[in-house]
Structure to design on (594 residues):
């Protein structure tokens, strides 16, 4: 059971914000034509907001003080049209920018899922499903909250800020310069708080990944937790992870809570300065009342975009932390890439050879040590030995889930590393001890490896696997919907469906991992009969826990500590009175006492 590791210090992060942002912006490339339209709407909305205070101040000096009621009514009509135009432009910019951003985020999710599907099995040995789901859902959702919902508003405020600054400096240079004195302080304050927030939000993104992993583990293992009476312990472990996530978020929120009042204080300070100096200018006749009124309105508008941009900047720290985690996943090396210009595997005849193969999941600890084997087409090879001896590793190397550390695995004399993985695995079938079925129909599960298979072929495979009669007895037959992991089918029924799945792809090499364990006697007879049909004229590798199931094997390989210590037929190994004979005698004796 995983205990959350120490949080990586921010200075240890290889990915910096600017390259991360630049990489995210590359996702906008397909929308080059839409972006100018969106920016035009943003600029139009900003212009309508910037011109309002100027017209109001002008109206005070030239219409209200002059008693020009018709002119004032006309100006009110003009202002009304301007604000209606602004509302239309803002609505359009939000819709257009949102349209672009949602497609960018959709592509980001697609890239993450594609990457996860293409990563080698070794990656998942050291990763947790909950953390990967967190990157796909939580981290992308954080980016969506920062960019998808507020980026249009943020862009509009940038344009508004530019327009307001130009208008203020144009109306009265002294008042304009005074109003902008607070900008350096705001920039400094924003930079200071953003650095603190960025560090804290990095921690929150990591802790939410740990929390998702622990939650996924708790859901999928609830039966085991109850059976082994460790529910309370699981709750306590979850509380530790949950508390770490809570504390990280509390610290991030505390920084945000301190930041916003600081900006409000600078806003109030600037407003007071403009009111005091503007009032002095108005009293001395150096500025009109309309100009001072325009400036007061502009100051309020001036700091509103800065406040919104500051809030966005703080929120963006969480999004940037999420993007860092996403791009770290996307940059994860695919260690089992196909060789350049690798050809497809020719139709397999079925000869499998291991030539002095060594392998370790970590460089310091070898699992296989100098393994040599030669399986001829059509032979049944049984792999027996204690848990952890290396049986499953041999199977994984045939499928090229991993690459050998030394030596070579060859099929029909062709090194499996020299051909495409897809063409290799397309011709290898596998039936595991605990096969996974998926949400969907029974027919779709049988056709999992051959999605284009015809219904007649699916039914023929089911008949060979002794599961056709059962399927047609279901309420909707082959169209019956299954739940997660094949519910509500029994273990034996799922096993028969899995055999039908292997039959349908017609593999030349077949891998079986004790496919008859954990099922009742009647179903076992059906499974054994289906397997016997499936094995005909195919090279097969059978991981055998019950030695009585491999007495007819052409070769029995006894594996201990990563080496083949005995090999031969069942009869030959019994005659040798070695490791295999002792294992067989122990099992036979155990069965006879039951």
């Amino acid at each position: 059971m995983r205990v959350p590791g120490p949080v990586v210090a921010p200075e240890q992060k290889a990915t910096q914000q600017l390259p991360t942002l630049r990489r995210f912006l590359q996702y906008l490339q397909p929308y080059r034509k839409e972006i100018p339209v969106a920016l035009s709407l943003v600029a139009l909305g900003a212009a309508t907001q910037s011109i309002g205070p100027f017209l109001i101040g002008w109206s005070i000096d030239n219409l209200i003080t002059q008693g020009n009621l018709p002119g004032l009514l006309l100006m009110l009509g003009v202002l009304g049209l301007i604000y209606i135009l602004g509302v239309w432009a803002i609505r359009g910019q939000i819709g257009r920018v949102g349209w672009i951003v949602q497609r960018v985020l959709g592509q980001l999710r697609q890239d993450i899922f594609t990457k996860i599907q293409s990563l080698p099995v070794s990656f998942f040995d050291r990763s947790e499903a909950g953390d990967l789901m967190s990157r796909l859902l939580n981290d992308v959702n954080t980016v969506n909250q920062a960019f998808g919902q507020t980026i249009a508003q943020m862009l509009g405020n940038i344009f508004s800020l530019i327009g307001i600054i130009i208008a203020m400096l144009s109306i009265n240079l002294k008042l304009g310069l005074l109003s902008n004195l607070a900008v350096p302080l705001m920039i400094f304050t924003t930079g200071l708080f953003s650095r603190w927030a960025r560090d804290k939000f990095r921690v929150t993104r990591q802790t939410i990944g740990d929390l998702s992993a622990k939650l996924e583990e708790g859901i999928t293992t609830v039966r085991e937790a109850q059976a082994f009476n460790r529910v309370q312990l699981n709750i306590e472990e979850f509380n530790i992870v949950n508390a770490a996530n809570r504390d990280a978020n509390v610290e991030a929120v505390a920084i945000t809570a301190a930041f916003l009042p600081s900006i409000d204080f600078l806003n109030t300070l600037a407003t007071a300065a403009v009111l005091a100096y503007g009032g002095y200018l108005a009293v001395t006749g150096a500025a009109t009342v309309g100009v001072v009124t325009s400036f007061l309105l502009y100051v309020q508008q001036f700091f509103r975009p800065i406040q919104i941009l500051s809030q966005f900047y703080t929120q963006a720290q969480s999004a940037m932390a999420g993007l860092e985690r996403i791009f770290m996943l996307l940059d994860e090396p695919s260690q089992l890439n196909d060789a350049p210009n690798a050809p497809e595997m020719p139709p397999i005849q079925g000869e499998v050879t291991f030539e002095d193969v060594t392998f370790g999941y970590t460089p310091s600890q070898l699992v296989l040590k100098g393994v040599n084997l030669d399986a001829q087409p059509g032979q049944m090879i049984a792999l027996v030995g204690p848990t952890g001896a290396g049986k499953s590793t041999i199977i994984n190397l045939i499928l090229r889930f991993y690459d050998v550390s030394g030596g070579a695995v060859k099929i029909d004399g062709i090194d499996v590393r020299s051909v495409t993985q897809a063409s290799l695995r397309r011709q290898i079938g596998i039936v595991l001890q605990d096969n996974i079925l998926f949400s969907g129909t029974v027919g779709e599960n049988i056709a999992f490896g051959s999605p284009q298979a015809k219904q007649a072929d699916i039914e023929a495979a089911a008949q060979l696997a002794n599961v056709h009669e059962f399927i047609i007895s279901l309420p909707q037959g082959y169209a019956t919907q299954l739940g997660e992991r094949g519910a509500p089918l029994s273990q034996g029924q799922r096993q028969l469906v899995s055999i039908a799945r292997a039959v349908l792809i017609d593999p030349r090499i077949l891998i079986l991992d004790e496919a008859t364990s954990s099922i009742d006697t009647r179903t076992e007879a059906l499974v054994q009969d289906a397997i016997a049909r499936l094995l005909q004229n195919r090279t097969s590798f059978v991981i055998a826990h019950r030695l009585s199931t491999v007495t007819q094997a052409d070769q029995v390989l006894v594996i201990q500590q990563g080496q083949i210590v005995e090999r031969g037929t069942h009869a030959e190994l019994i005659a040798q009175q070695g490791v295999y004979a002792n294992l067989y005698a122990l099992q036979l004796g155990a069965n006879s006492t039951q």
Remarks:
- Residues 352-592 form a domain with the Rossmann fold fold (CATH 3.40.50.300).
- DSSP finds 20 helices and twelve strands in the chain.
- Residues 146 and 169 are 32 Å apart (CA to CA).
